[in-house]
Amino acid sequence: METFEKCKELYESVRSWKEMAKDECKMTMYSIQKHGVLGTLKNEIVAVGDDVVDLGNQTGDILRTSSTTVPHLMLRQLVISVELCKQGAK
To answer: Is this prediction's pTM over 0.70?
Structure first.
């Protein structure tokens, strides 16, 4: 996925919006010629579904990681706050 992001950034840096729109039109026309209108629509819907699944998996990973990290960070902040209060009371 990281390689894709690097390629995407490079592509976007060397192509104008007009050129990217032309590329999209050409790819869509090619897909319609190869798969037909309904086949192209089906493929697009499947791709969107795959994106949703990937996003769900990434969200789950983030939640699992944060659920183990956030309590430690909060406890650390609480300890620091207590220490600062003790120092201020002296």
So the answer is: no
